Each structure stands twice: as C-alpha cells, then as structure tokens.
C-alpha cells in the first residue's frame, strides 16, 4: 500500500487537474454559446441561397455554367479537411481524420497512389496527421477556424475555384463536423465542385415549380454572380459548424474529465483513510506490545 505522503501528493495533483478541466469546461461553454448563435444565424441564409440556386438551375442550360459541368473522368481530387487546432476535445479530431483516411483510400485509392489526391487542411490537427504520413498537402490554414470570417472563406474558395476552372482539380469535396447538439457532432462529406445538381430539398422550396418568376438580369447572369457567393458562404458555414462542434465536444470532454477527477479523488481519499487507519492501528499495537513487555520484565 502506498504511503500517506504519496497518496496526499496524488490527491493534490488530481485536485489541481480537476480545477483546470473545470475552468476549460467553463471557457468552452462560453465559446459554445457564441458559436452556436453564429451558426444558427447563418443556416437560414445558407439554406435560402441553396433554394434559390436550385430553382434557377431548373431554368438554365447547365452547359453554360462551367461549375456545373461534370467531368467525364475524375483524374484529380481536392479534399478540404476541417479539423481543430487543439486537442482536449474527445474524439472530435480522431473521428474526422479516420473518416477522411477511409474516404481517400476507398473512394480514390488509385488516384491517391498516383499522387492525384490533394488535401487542403484547415486546422492544425489534420495538417499534422497527414503531413507526417506523406499525404500530398495542397495548402494549410492554421489558427483560422476559431475566428474565421466570411472574407477568410472567400479568399480560400477563390483560389480553389480558380484552380478548378483551370482544370487542376476535377472534383472538390469538403469533410467537416456538423454541429447537432452539445453532445453530438455529425461528420459530413459534401461535394462542392462541380456543383451538385440537387443543391436543395425541393419539398422545402419556397419557390413554386409552376410559377413563372421574372428575374432581372437573366437567370444565367444571376447564376454567374450567385454561385461564387454561394460557395464562399457554404465554406464559411462549415467553419462555423466545425467551431461550434469543437466547442461542444471540448465542453463534454472536460465535463467528463472533471467528473472522473472527482471520482478519483474520492477513491484516493478512501485509500488514504484506510492507510492512515492501518498506520494508527500499527502504532497502537506497537505501544501495547511495548507496555506488555515492560510489565513482564517487572
């Protein structure tokens, strides 16, 4: 059994750790509130933009829009991977990295062997993992996700869109964690380019399919202006989703860590009391034995 000093030292260490995890939980809770408000505010605009584009797509010739043209053969792929910059958020990073790895090897195994699958890593954890394992990193953005702005997303998407139109990539996908609740995040794998034909749920559309809407300027001109804005905002929305999901995961992880620390302190306290009781009992036995020995000598 460990001596009393060692047990007291362990109790002190675990108690200090629980204070840190409790503080991190409170910080994550405060950040989660802001992140949750931001994503709830952004979702309606993103959905209405998808709805409008889906309605316009039914009225235009898709061949006039390069971002809608499906390449006959996919020879190069860009995966945008959104992870966190820091750990201590449970399986948040591990799950999405595992999903991205499986996606690369199962869907694009041959292209990956030929070096035609590139990664654009947003977040330190994803970049660190894949760069150490020899994956082809197209670009990285570290320290961005927790304070990302629409301008940041627009800058990244502008480069991606230009390279796609030049034929450097035949398909662009994004993998990120979608915020569902404080204790639940869902990994999403979405195609950004070419723009999917089904960009909105027709059952929830605000535009009636039998109504002849009049657009000024023409539908094609509108699409040319709306699609880049749509892509920019979809990328920005994924940043907000990932940030909210990260804070929720960290809050849950720190809450569990604090609870476990308190349970461990309780167990160590019982062990300390047991060891102290055994020590006192031993001392009493030694005193009694000594007293009995003295009486026998008399």
Question: Helices, strands, pairings?
Answer:
Layout: H1 4-57, E1 77-82, H2 92-107, H3 109-113, E2 117-122, H4 124-132, E3 136-141, H5 150-165, E4 171-181, E5 184-193, H6 219-297
Parallel strand pairs: 1-2, 1-4, 2-3
Antiparallel strand pairs: 4-5
Helix pairs in contact: 1-6, 5-6
Explain how this protein is built.
This protein is of the alpha/beta class and 298 residues long. It folds into 2 domains: 4-20 and 255-297, Helix Hairpins (Orthogonal Bundle), CATH 1.10.287; 27-252, ATP synthase, F1 complex, gamma subunit (Pyruvate Kinase, Chain: A, domain 1, 3-Layer(aba) Sandwich). Helix content is 60%, strand content 13%. It is built from 6 helices and 5 strands. A 5-stranded mixed beta sheet has the order 3-2-1-4-5, sandwiched between helices. Helix 1 packs antiparallel against helix 6 and helix 5 packs across helix 6. The longest helix is centred in the last third of the chain and has 79 residues, at 219-297.
């Amino acid at each position: 059994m460990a001596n009393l000093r060692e047990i007291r030292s362990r109790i002190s260490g675990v108690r200090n750790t629980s204070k840190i995890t409790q503080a991190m939980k409170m910080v994550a809770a405060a950040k989660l509130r802001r992140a949750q408000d931001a994503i709830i505010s952004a979702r309606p605009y993103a959905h209405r933009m998808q709805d409008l584009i889906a309605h316009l797509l039914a009225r235009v010739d898709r061949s006039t829009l390069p971002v809608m043209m499906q390449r006959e053969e996919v020879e190069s792929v860009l995966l945008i991977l959104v992870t966190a910059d820091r750990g201590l958020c449970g399986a948040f990073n591990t799950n999405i990295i595992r999903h991205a790895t499986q996606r690369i090897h199962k869907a694009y195994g041959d292209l990956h062997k030929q070096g035609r699958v590139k990664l654009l890593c947003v977040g330190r954890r994803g970049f660190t993992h894949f760069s150490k394992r020899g994956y082809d990193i197209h670009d990285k953005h570290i320290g961005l996700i927790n304070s990302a702005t629409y301008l940041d997303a627009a800058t990244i998407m502008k480069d991606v869109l230009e390279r796609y139109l030049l034929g450097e990539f035949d398909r662009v996908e994004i993998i990120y964690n979608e915020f569902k609740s404080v204790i639940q995040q869902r990994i999403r794998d979405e195609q950004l380019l070419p723009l999917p034909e089904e960009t909105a749920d027709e059952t929830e559309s605000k535009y009636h399919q039998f109504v002849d809407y009049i657009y000024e300027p023409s539908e094609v001109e509108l699409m040319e202006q709306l699609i880049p804005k749509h892509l920019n905002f979809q990328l920005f929305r994924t940043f907000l989703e990932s940030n909210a999901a990260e804070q929720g995961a960290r809050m849950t992880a720190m809450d569990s860590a604090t609870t476990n620390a308190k349970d461990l302190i309780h167990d160590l306290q019982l062990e300390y009391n047991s060891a102290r009781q055994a020590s006192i009992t031993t001392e009493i036995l030694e005193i009694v034995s000594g007293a009995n020995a003295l009486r026998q000598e008399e």
